[in-house]
Structure formats: C-alpha cells, structure tokens
C-alpha cells in the first residue's frame, strides 16, 4: 500500500486482477486465426511493408489500454484517498466528512464553571454548545455520530447525515453519569462506527475537561498500541482534543470538596448495636474549605450534623455513631453543604441491614475435654467477640454450644446456623431434621478434625440417597454435603512447607471480600492437616462450588445451596489443632463473612462503586427478616414480568431486572446489574420495607485538577492528536485528512475507454 | 468441368440473344460505315440443306428444285474479316474464389466469359482462337470460324489449370509472334503484374494493328477486403509465402493501393487505346459483355 494513498474499499482492489483478461484474450486470439488462399498478394505485401511497424505499436498500445481499463475501474470502485499535501492543492473537490463526537459525560463534566451565569452552565453544557455550533456550521453532506466516554459499546450512536434537529435531541440525551470512562474503548467504538462510513475525511473530536486522572490513565504502552491501531486503519481518522472551558482555567486552581463513606463501614449490624459510619471529606482545592456542614440522614431523616474545616488538598475523616432500632434495610445519606461548581459529589450514600442477633448452635464433642479444651473455643470467640465486655449488644451472633448427644430436632429449630465442629457423627434420627432445617433457609457449617468419621459423612451426608428417612423434597436436592471427605487426612511431614490459601480472584459473594488486599491478609495462614475433598456422585451439580483452595489445589472451603439454605464445608479444623487460622486476625472477619453472606439477603453486595456489577445469585429474596419458614410454594414463573424493580428515585433511573412475584416475596433473576449513577437503589416489595442498594461514585471524578502542560499536551502527543480550542479552529484547518480522488480515476477510465475505441476502430480499419 | 457445362443452357440462350442483339447492332451500325458483313460470303459451295420455313427465298437452289422438285438451300464456306484471339490468364492468383456463398473463382469466371465471347463470335462466323497463359503461352488454338471449332476451344478451356506466378508480359511476348495479323486480342486476366511491362507487351499487339481488349477480373473480396479477424493469407502463386495479418490494421492501406492500381491501369489503357473491361466475379459476365458491345458499337 502506498504511504500517500489509501482506499475506502480496499477489498475491491482485487478487481484490478481483471487486467489479465485482455492479456488472456490476446494470447488466445493469437492462436486462433482463419486461413485464406489469396491472390492479390502484391497489394498485401506492399501494405504490410509500409505499415508493419505502426501496426505493431498500435497493437501493443491497444493491449495496454485494455489492461488499464479494469485496473482503473477497480481503483475507482476502491475509492482511493490521497493523503493531504500530495497534489491536494491541485485536485479540487472530492472531500466528504464524517465526524464522531466523543463526549466526556463523567461526573466532573457536571461542574459548573461559571456560577454567576444564569442558569449556571456545566462543562457538559458547554461541550454540547460547541458540538451544536460545529454541526450547524458543517457542510450539508457531512455526517455525524455522537458517543460518550462512559457508555458501553452496544450503546454506540450511529453516524447519521447532518440533521440539526435530530442531533440536538441526541445531545439533549447525553447526561453526566458516573461510570468508568474509558477513552480507548470509546475510540474503538468510534473507529467501528467510522469504518461503516464512506466519507473521505474522518475525524474524532473528544470534548472533555481532560482531568488529570483521565490524562494519566492512558499509559505510554496503551498509547503506542492505540497509535499502531490507528495507523493500520485504511483511512485513519484525525483525532482532535477539545478541552472544555477557558484554556487558562486549566491551569487555575480547581475547587471541589467531596464526601464519601468509608468502604470499610459495616453493612450488616445487629439491631440496637452501635454502628459507626466514617465519612471521608476530601478538599481537592488548594485553599482551606471553611465551615463545611456535614449532615447525616438515616432513612431520609437528618439525625446529626457537624461543621468542619478542611485544609487545602487534605482529607478528613469524621465518624458518626448511632444504632438502628428497627431491623431491616436502612439507607444512610451523608451530605455536605457548600457552594461550588461540582455538586454531584457532595453527597454519599450507604445501605445498612440491621438484623436481630443471629442464633448459632455449635455442636462440639470436645466440650468436656479438659485435657485439650473444647474444639470450638476459637469459633465462639470469633462469633461473640464482645462476650467478655460490658457491651454485649455489640454481638451480632448469639452462640450456644452442646455435645452431639444433646442435639435434638427441637434444639435445631431454635437456631438459624448450626456448626458441626469436629463431630464424629450424628444420630441418624437427627439427620433429616437437620436437612429440613437447611432446606428452609438455615445454614450448616461443617468443620473437619481428628474425630470425624469420614465414612459416616460420606455415606450419610455426601452420597445419594442422602438418607433413607429423607422425604421426597429433600431427596431431590441431595446430596447434602458439597464434597466427600477423603478417608485419611493429608499431613505435612517434617519441615515441609505448610499449606497456604491460594490467592486468586474470588468471584463468589461469600469470598469476594478476600480480594481487598488492603484490609485482608491471609498470607500467613498455614494449614498442617486437612481432608481432601473428593467429588461426590453428582460432580456436575452447579450448586456446588469450591470457594477457597489450598496452594496445592485441594479444597479449603466449599459451599452448596440446599433448598433455601446453604451448607458450608471446611477441610480443616476451626481450632488451632490443624492450622494457625484461628490465631490470625483474618479468622474473625472470615467466619463472619462466611456465615453472614450465607444468610439472605446479606449475601449480596449492597454497597458498591458505580460501574461495578451487582451480582445477584439466582436465589430467593424470601422474607429475610423473619426466621425462614418452609417454602414449598413452587415458583410460578408465569407471573414473571420484566420490570424496574430496582430504582433510583433521585435520578429517576431504574435498572431492568426480571422479577418474579411470590407470595410475600419476590425473586430477582438478573445475573448482573450495573449501577452507573451514584445513589440509593431500592428493591421494593420485600416484606414491609424496601431493600436498599447503594452505589458510590469513585473518588477520581471529583478531582478536578487539570494539568495542561503535563497532562493534556502529553496525552495529545502520545495519541497523535491535535488540541483545538474551538469549533472555528477545526474549520480553519485546511487540507486536513484525505482527499477522495476516484473522480480522477473515472476521468482516466473514460479516457482509456475512448482511446481504446478509437484505436480499436483504427486498427480494424473502420475509421480513417 | 465438361465442355458443355462451361455455358449453361441459360447462358447459351442469353448469348444467342446477345448474338441477335449483336447482329442487329452490327447490321445497323455497319450500313455505309464498314464493309458489309455479308461481303465475305464466299461463292465456294459447301453443301445443300432442306429448305425450312423462314429461310430466304433467294438462297433457294432453283436449279435443283427443277431437277428434284424439292426445295434446298445452298450453303457456302464462310469467310470472315474478324480474327479474334482470346488470351486467358491461368496464373495462381486467378484461382482465388471469394468468401461469398456460390462464389466462383476468377479463372472459372474468365473461362465463362471467354466461352461466351467465343460462342458469340462463332455464331457470327468470325474466327476465334485461344491462348492459355501464365508466365508462358501454355496452350494455343489458332482462330477458326467453323461451328465445330467452338467445341475445341471449350475443351482447351476446361483443361486449363491455374498455377504459377503471373508474368503476363513475358507470356504475351511469347504469344505475340503466333498471333500475327490484324484482329482483335482479348486478354482476360486479373493483371496482377507489373503495369509497365504489361502495357508494353499489349502495345506490341497495337503495333500490329490489332485491337486489344483487356478484361480485368476481380473478386469482390479483393476490392473490399472484408476480413475482420486475424487471417493467414496463403499465397496462391508462391507456396510458403504466407502472411499472418490483422486485416483491420491493413485494410485502409490495402484498399488505397488497389484503387491506385485500378486507376493507373485505366489511365494507361486509355493512353494506349486498349479497351479495359473491369469484371467482378459476382457480376453477370453476359451483361458485362453486352454492356461492352453496346459501348463499343460493334465487335
């Protein structure tokens, strides 16, 4: 491919191979001739002698013309483009234009730069004015596409002919949202749309405030890759960066104060327990922000407020303490009152679920073991950390312990969670009640140990049929335990390295908190002994999941949905006999997360950042406040409807989800929901009050700091883009892009056709 | 080709009508201008024949009628003042047969023309001779006027074959001593020879006070060169001298050369008082003959 010429329909260039057709015809005709006995040879000889040279070169010229005709035709149809500067001054016309406008509609673009204007105009409004100005002054045959830096690829706007009314409506539809603005992905989207257009000149204009964070997000390697892709495009578009606002303001001091709720704030709390919410107020300005009033509201009612002063470019944490008197889901709103350009980040939300304390029954055969002490001491300490303190109200769990022989059906019914800690086996009569308890929504957690009888577990709980006494409903859910236990435990011999937990990207809601490396450290957790998990008779059961693995691949924790409840299976002890796990700080949060996340509705993430997925497992949102009741009601999927059960009232937006309505409950069937707009989303129709979900905006959007010299210029340089200041500046650029020259090839083609006709007639003696 | 097939029945009829026409022309034109065509009637008795209705009564032998009481016509050995020698070119180029359907070769056309002429002259009781030439005089039949001579002429024509190169001037120089005396020499040829030599050779006959008539035979293809696709032209006169030609490219020049040749020939013939009769093989030779006689006034 010529460096100075490219083609819009390069694939049609293959048509040029048709030049061989005249050659083939010529060669075939050479071998095909007619023989004639001729008498008047003297005239023929004379004519031949006089014309042989002329005939020969005319013949070759004709052949050349005929070969050139398909080549020129293919060139015409391939629509060649001449790069700017190459003859472009001497070739008039031939330039059509397609422009794709990429709007940065991130939260920072909602910043109102001129607060004195009436009404105050945001940066996004300014960008829209620029865009409208460009479209209005553009050529009638130009085509325009409008996209955003935050929308997903399937939301890409098509490039359509210039229609001011239509494009004005498209502009009006662009609103600031908080999402992961991805400049490179947006360019891919624009490339794909521009590739469909047939215009000779293509351009992409990014209208953004070019925050420092955005400029820095494009690393050098990414930029190089981007430029390579750009160069490989058949007709690479010109890229323009249009910083919104007065260029001089890009060097000026940004002024913005934002508030967030600490992500470590507890989402689940017991009713009446003290709950502390930590507000993080950040001042991105250089000057001190004075008299910042913080207001905390719970369920829409202001409960407390504080006035603070925050130095420039500093962050302050302010804690508010409170307790929830009602169980259920609560929304917490924190707002700051300040006059500034970006107001969208002056509020933060959080969702809290207040639960009555959860009764836990620990079955421990070593309760009376005076020599070694009870197996479940560590577990009890983790579940009831405040047992010895004065503040017993702080405990979310109420723990009772008994030996296996004391376990009865009635006792099981009193507890939501049952833990078997190194239990050798249970009486057969108690197995079915235990399974029914889990099936109704209860939780069973099984820890291994030196006393367990794997054969009994495998035979009674982990095989099919589970139990002869199990009713038909239970039989349909079997087996009960996620995995079989190996017959003998694995033991680390001598000084061999202890086994650790495998660090991976945890996806399951129960273990997803382990991905937070800042607050979770399980590197020093070691395991000496464990039972290997073996697949049971139905290994393809999708409800079984190995949640955490050891570094050798053996299972550490597995879970299985059983009816409405969950069975958790651990391959080692809950004490320090086989592992140092209980001695590590991670023990308490892990035990809490394992048990809490297995309890609906806490198993779902209810506080996320915008743009993150809200993963709702396909399970029921039953009446989660009350003790689970037997639910034999079959799900009537015919009552399903596609609705907007999850809604954000403030922004009047909603997330679509498939909703099934059951008596006193709903079921949400939606594997992934992405909340783009920060705020509170509520799921209506559960019990008496909605379940709140909170989405917080990432902090980066609030940093309005712009670095023109180091940021935007560097970004433009890395991406091979040009910085422009106004729409007029684009218009003033001459000879930019490519010039379409197919018309010249068409003229050449016509010339060739006429030349061929003339020569052919001359050679055949028709004329002249 | 049999001798009889040279002239079809229709041709013979047309030639007979031509004879009547020619006779009428001769009779009409000869009054007071030429010697009577009957003057040559000899008193040399040949034979009697029975009288048939329509015969002139003055030719009745009344003496014999007195003896036999039957009417007989007296016939005499005829004499003529016209000696015509037909020279037919049988060089290779005369073998060309056009691309049109039912086309005949130039040689065949020449034979038919010569036969018609011979028939006409014999019918007029003129003496007709024949020479077949290419580069030499291949066959020569001296002029005779008796009706049986026509058959001999036609047999000689039928036996002629086209071959060899055209060297008319050389052949005519060889034939000239054989054709002595005043008369008419008719050369039927395509004349594909050097014009200077040809005209010079024909001039010998003019010097001998003979009239010279040149019937130039063309095929339509030679005049129009209608070929389109690539053609290999095989030389009819020289084997192996073939030419592969793109006809379209040469057509214009070829036609110009043919036209120039015809013009030059006509000019030179006029200059040497040679009657030039252009014939094209798709034209009726009898009509051409009639047209020529009409234009000439007599033969």
Structural notes for this entry:
The complex is a heterodimer of chains A (768) and B (299). Chain A has 768 residues and is α/β, with parallel strands linked by helices. In chain A, 26% of the residues lie in helices and 27% in strands. Chain A contains 16 helices and 40 strands. In chain A, the strands form ten sheets. A seven-stranded mixed beta sheet of chain A has the order 20-19-21-22-29-28-27, covered by helices on one side. A seven-stranded mixed beta sheet of chain A has the order 30-38-37-33-34-35-32, with no helix packed on it. By secondary structure, chain B is an alpha/beta fold. Chain B has two domains: 3-15 and 81-298, Rossmann fold (3-Layer(aba) Sandwich); 42-76, no CATH class. In chain B, the strands form three sheets. A six-stranded mixed beta sheet of chain B has the order 5-4-3-6-7-10, sandwiched between helices. In chain B, strands 1-2 form a two-stranded antiparallel ribbon. In chain B, strand 3 (83-89), helix 4 (106-123) and strand 4 (127-133) form a beta-alpha-beta unit. Chain B is elongated. The model of chain B is unreliable at 18-42 (pLDDT under 50). Classes of the chains: A alpha/beta (768), B alpha/beta (299). At the A-B interface, strand 2 and helix 2 of A face strand 8, strand 9 and helix 9 of B. Strand 2 of chain A pairs parallel with strand 8 of chain B, so a sheet runs across the interface.
């Amino acid at each position: 491919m010529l460096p100075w010429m490219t083609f819009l329909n390069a694939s049609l260039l293959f048509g040029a191979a048709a030049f061989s057709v005249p050659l083939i015809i010529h060669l075939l005709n050479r071998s095909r001739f007619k023989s004639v006995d001729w008498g008047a040879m003297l005239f023929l000889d004379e004519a031949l002698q006089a014309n042989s040279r002329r005939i020969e070169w005319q013949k070759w010229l004709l052949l050349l013309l005929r070969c050139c005709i398909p080549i020129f035709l293919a060139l015409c149809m391939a629509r060649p483009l001449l790069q700017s500067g190459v003859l472009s001054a001497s070739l008039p016309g031939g330039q059509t234009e397609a422009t794709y406008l990429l709007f940065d509609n991130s939260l920072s673009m909602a910043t109102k730069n001129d607060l004195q204007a009436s009404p105050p105009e945001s940066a996004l409004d300014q960008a829209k004015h620029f865009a409208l100005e460009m479209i209005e002054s553009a050529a009638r045959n130009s085509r325009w596409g409008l996209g955003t830096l935050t929308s997903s690829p399937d939301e890409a706007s098509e490039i359509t002919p210039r229609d001011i009314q239509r494009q004005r409506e498209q502009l009006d539809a662009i609103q600031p949202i908080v999402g992961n603005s991805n400049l490179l992905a947006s360019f891919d989207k624009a490339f794909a749309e521009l590739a469909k257009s047939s215009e000779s000149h293509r351009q992409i204009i990014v209208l953004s405030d070019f925050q420092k964070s955005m400029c820095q997000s494009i690393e050098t390697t990414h930029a190089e890759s981007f430029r390579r892709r750009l160069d490989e495009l058949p007709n690479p578009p010109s890229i323009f960066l249009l910083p919104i606002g007065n260029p001089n303001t890009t060097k000026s001091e940004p002024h913005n104060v934002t508030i967030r709720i600490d992500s470590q704030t507890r989402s689940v709390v017991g009713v009446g327990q003290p709950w502390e919410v930590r507000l993080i107020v950040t001042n991105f300005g250089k000057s001190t922000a004075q008299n910042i009033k913080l207001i905390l509201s719970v369920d829409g009612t202001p409960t407390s407020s504080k006035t603070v002063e925050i130095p420039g470019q500093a962050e302050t944490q302010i804690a508010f303490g409170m307790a929830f008197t009602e169980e259920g889901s609560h929304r917490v709103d924190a707002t700051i009152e300040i006059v500034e350009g970006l107001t969208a980040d002056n509020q933060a939300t959080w969702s809290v679920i207040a639960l009555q304390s959860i009764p836990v029954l620990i079955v421990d055969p070593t309760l009376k073991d005076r020599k070694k002490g009870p197996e479940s001491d560590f577990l009890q300490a983790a579940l009831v950390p405040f047992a010895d303190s004065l503040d017993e109200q702080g405990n979310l769990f109420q723990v009772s312990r008994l030996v296996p022989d004391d376990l009865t059906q009635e006792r099981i019914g009193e507890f939501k969670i049952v833990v078997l800690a190194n239990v050798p086996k249970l009486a057969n009569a108690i197995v079915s009640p235990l399974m029914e308890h889990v099936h109704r929504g209860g939780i069973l957690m099984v820890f291994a140990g030196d006393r367990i009888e794997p054969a009994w577990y495998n035979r009674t709980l982990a095989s099919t049929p589970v139990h002869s006494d199990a009713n038909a409903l239970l039989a349909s859910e079997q087996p009960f335990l996620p995995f079989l236990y190996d017959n003998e435990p694995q033991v680390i011999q001598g000084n061999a390295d202890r086994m650790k937990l495998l660090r991976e990207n945890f996806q399951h809601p129960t273990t997803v908190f382990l991905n937070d490396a800042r607050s979770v450290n399980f590197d020093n957790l070691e395991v000496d002994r464990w039972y290997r998990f073996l697949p049971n008779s139905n290994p393809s059961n999708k409800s079984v999941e190995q949640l955490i693995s050891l570094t050798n691949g053996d299972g550490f924790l597995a879970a299985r949905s059983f009816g409405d409840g969950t069975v958790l299976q651990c391959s080692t002890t809950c004490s320090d006999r086989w592992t140092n796990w209980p001695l590590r700080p991670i023990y308490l949060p892990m035990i809490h997360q394992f048990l809490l996340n297995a309890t609906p509705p806490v198993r779902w993430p209810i506080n996320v950042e915008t743009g993150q997925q809200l993963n709702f497992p396909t399970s029921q949102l039953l009446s989660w406040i009350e003790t689970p009741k037997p639910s034999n009601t079959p799900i009537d999927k015919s009552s399903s409807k596609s609705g907007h059960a999850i809604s954000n009232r403030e922004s009047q937006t909603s997330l679509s989800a498939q909703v099934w309505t059951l008596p006193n409950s709903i079921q949400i069937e939606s594997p992934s929901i992405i909340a783009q707009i920060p705020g509170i989303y509520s799921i209506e129709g559960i019990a008496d009050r909605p379940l709140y979900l909170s989405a917080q905006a990432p902090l980066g959007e609030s940093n309005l700091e712009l670095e023109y010299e180091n940021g935007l210029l560097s970004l433009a340089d890395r991406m091979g883009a040009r910085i422009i200041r106004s729409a007029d500046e684009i218009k003033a650029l001459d000879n930019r892009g490519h010039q379409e020259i197919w018309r010249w090839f068409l003229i050449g083609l016509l010339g060739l056709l006429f030349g061929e006709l003339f020569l052919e007639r001359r050679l055949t003696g028709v004329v002249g | 080709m049999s001798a009889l097939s040279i002239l079809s029945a229709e041709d013979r009829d047309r030639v007979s009508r031509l004879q009547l026409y020619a006779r009428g022309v001769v009779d009409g034109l000869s009054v007071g201008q030429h010697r009577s065509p009957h003057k040559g009637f000899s008193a040399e008795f040949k034979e009697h024949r029975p009288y048939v209705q329509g015969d002139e009564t003055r030719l009745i032998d009344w003496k014999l009628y007195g003896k036999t009481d039957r009417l007989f016509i007296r016939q005499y050995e005829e004499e003529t003042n016209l000696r015509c020698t037909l020279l037919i070119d049988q060089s290779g180029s005369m073998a060309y047969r056009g691309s049109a359907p039912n086309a005949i070769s130039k040689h065949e056309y020449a034979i038919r023309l010569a036969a018609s002429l011979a028939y006409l002259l014999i019918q007029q009781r003129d003496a007709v001779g024949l020479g077949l030439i290419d580069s030499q005089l291949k066959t020569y039949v001296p002029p005779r006027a008796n009706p049986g001579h026509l058959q001999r002429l036609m047999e000689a024509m039928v036996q002629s074959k086209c071959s060899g190169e055209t060297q008319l001037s050389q052949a005519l120089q060889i034939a000239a001593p054989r054709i002595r005396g005043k008369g008419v020499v008719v050369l039927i040829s395509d004349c594909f020879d050097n014009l200077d030599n040809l005209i010079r050779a024909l001039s010998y006959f003019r010097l001998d006070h003979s009239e010279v008539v040149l019937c130039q035979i063309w095929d339509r293809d030679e005049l129009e060169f209608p070929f389109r696709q690539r053609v290999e032209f095989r030389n009819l006169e020289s084997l192996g001298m073939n030419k592969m030609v793109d006809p379209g490219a040469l057509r214009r020049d070829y036609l110009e050369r043919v036209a120039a040749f015809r013009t030059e020939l006509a000019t030179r013939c006029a200059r040497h008082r040679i009657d030039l009769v252009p014939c094209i093989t798709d034209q009726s030779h009898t009509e051409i003959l009639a047209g020529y006689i009409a234009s000439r006034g007599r033969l």
